[in-house]
Amino acid sequence: MTPPHERTPLLAPRRSCFPQLYRVYLVSFVVGMTFSFTQTALIYSFRTMTCDEYYKTHEWDGLGDRCAIHAIESATARSVALMSSITTGCTLLNLFTSAWFISRFGVKAAMFQQTFWAALRNLTQIYAQTLGGRAGMLIITTTQLFNTLGSAGGFQLCANAFVAGLSPDAERTANFGVLGGVFMFGSGIGYTAGGVSERVWGYLAPFQGAFCLLVLSTLFGIFFLPHFTPEAKTEERRSFLAPLRVFVPRRRATGGRDWNLTLLGLGTFFSVLATGYVPMMLQLVATNVFGFTPDTSGYMLSLNLLVRGFFLTQCFPHMITAGRRWLSPTPTTTAKAPVDSPSPSSSSSSSSPSKTPSPGMLSSPTLPTPPSPASPTKLSRTSHSPGSKSRRPSLPNLPAPPIPNIPRRRSRSRRNSASPSASASPAASSFLAPAPEHPFDADGAELPDAAGAPVLDLAPPPSPGAPLFDLLFLRYSILLDGLLTGAVTLASAPWHMYAAAGVLPFASGTGPASKGVTLEFVPSHERAHALSAIALVEKLAQVTTIGVFGYAFSALSDAGLPTLVFAANGAVAWCGFALLLPVRLPRAAPGGGV
Length: 594
What we know:
Blueprint: H1 20-37, H2 39-54, H3 70-105, H4 107-131, H5 133-143, H6 152-166, H7 172-201, H8 205-224, E1 250-251, E2 257-258, H9 260-275, H10 278-288, H11 294-327, H12 333-340, H13 344-351, H14 359-362, H15 381-384, H16 426-429, H17 465-487, H18 494-503, H19 510-518, H20 527-558, H21 564-580
Helix pairs in contact: 1-6, 1-7, 1-8, 2-3, 2-5, 3-4, 3-5, 3-6, 3-20, 4-5, 4-6, 4-8, 6-7, 6-20, 7-11, 7-19, 9-19, 9-20, 9-21, 10-11, 10-18, 11-17, 11-18, 17-19, 17-21
C-alpha cells in the first residue's frame, strides 16, 4: 500500500459499505464496456461512408448489397488500417503522458483525464457521422489523436496504479487479476451491447451511449475515488522516458549487474507476443476455414472475453491465495513458544524469588516502586510439582522482585527471546532481527510479562511464499498457455473453435502475475513508473504480434496450413518461459530466491 506521509490521517477511516477498491472496479467495468461499445459500429460506419463516397462518382445497377464490391471493401480496409495505426501510435504515447501525469498531479487526475478526452473524441465522432462521406472518415481518423491524452491503455495503467495503492502487498497480485477480469467483462458486454443498440436505435446510438457513460464515469471518479498525493514532487525531476529505465540492468553492490528485471520484461514481452493475436486468429481461422459468419464470430469472441473475465475475477485470486498459503511456513512456532511454554531461562528467573537483580538493574534511575503484595509470584512448574524434592517452602504471597520501568516496545527483536526448542522453520527464522546487545537499554529491552515470557509482536512477519508463488505462477502459466495454444493446431471442426475460445482464458493470468512480480523489485515511490513500463512492454508486444503473426498467418494460409500459426504461438510462449527461468527475487523481499 501507499507508505504514510505528512498528510496521512492519524486515525484510520471508518469502514465503508462501498470500499474504495470496489469503486475502482466499477469504474473499470463501465469504461471497459464504453471503449468496446463503438468498435463494431465504427467499422460499419467506415464501410457505409466509403460506400456513400464511392457512389458519388459511380452508378449502381446491380442487385443485393451495393456496398459488397471489392473496390469498396479494399478502400474500407485501407481507411481502417490507417485509423488503427494512428490509434496504436497515440496509445503508446499515452502511456508516457499518463505516467508523467501520475507523477505530477496524482493518479486520480490522470485517470479521469483519460475519460474526459475520450468523451470529447466520441462527441466529435458523432458530428463526423452526421457529415458522412470522405469528410466524416477524415474527422474520425483525426480524432484518434485524442488517444495521446486519453485511451484505454492509459486508463488501465491508471487503474493498475490505483489498485497498487489501495491493496495490501499480500493481495496486490490477486487484485490486479480481478481488475483485468472486470475490464474483460465490460469489454465482452460492450461488443454485444454496442451492436444491439446500433441495430435497434440507429447508427448514432453506440456513440451517444458511449459519450454518456464516459461523462458519468468521469463525474463518479471525481467525487467518489480517493486522492493520492503524488510522491514525485519531493523527489528528483524525472525525464519523460523515465519508465523505460525500469528494465535496464542495475549494478549490484556486491559486483556485477542484476538482470532479473530485464529478463522479466523480456518474458512478459514474449508472453504477450505469443497470445496477443490469438483472439484475432481464432476469428480468422473460424471465418476462413470453418465458414463462421459475423454473428457467430461475435459470439465466439464474447465467449472468450467472458470466460477470461470469470477466470481473472473468480479463479485467479483463489489460486494466488491458496498457492501462497501452500508455500508459506506454518505460523505456529514463533507465536506459541513464548506464551504456552516459557524458555528455560525465563522460567528459572521467574521461579527463583531469592535471585538478586543485577547491579545495573538496581542502579537504573527508572526503577519503579515495588508491586503490590496482592500480585503473587509466578513460581516455576518444577518447584511446585507434587513430586518435587525441593525443601524450599512455597511462598504464594511473596511479592515479585522489582523490574525496570521500561516502556514496552512492539519490536521484532522479542522473537529472539523465544525458547530455543521452538521449531521455527528456516524460512520464517530468516526474518528475525538479532538480539539487542544491551538488554536493559530502553531502546531494545525485553520486558517479560507476568508469566516471564516476552510480549509477542502484534504484526506477523511477511509471508515468504507470497512473491515466490507469484513468480512460479507466472512461469508455469506461460508454459500452460503455450501448450493450450499449440493444441488448437489440431482443430478440425467448428465446435473446436468454441472450445478453444472457452479453454484458452484459463491460462490468462500472466498479465497480473507479471505486474505483481515486477513490483517486488521496485520501491513504492517507483510503482507508477514500473506499471507504466509493463504497460509499454505489453503494448509494444501487441503491435509486434500483429505484424509478425499477421504475416505468418498469410504465408501459412497460402500453403494450405492456416492452423499451424497456433503452433508458432505456442513455441514463442515457451521461449518466454525459458527467459523467466533464471529470474530470482530480490534479497530484500521475503523468500528471496527461487
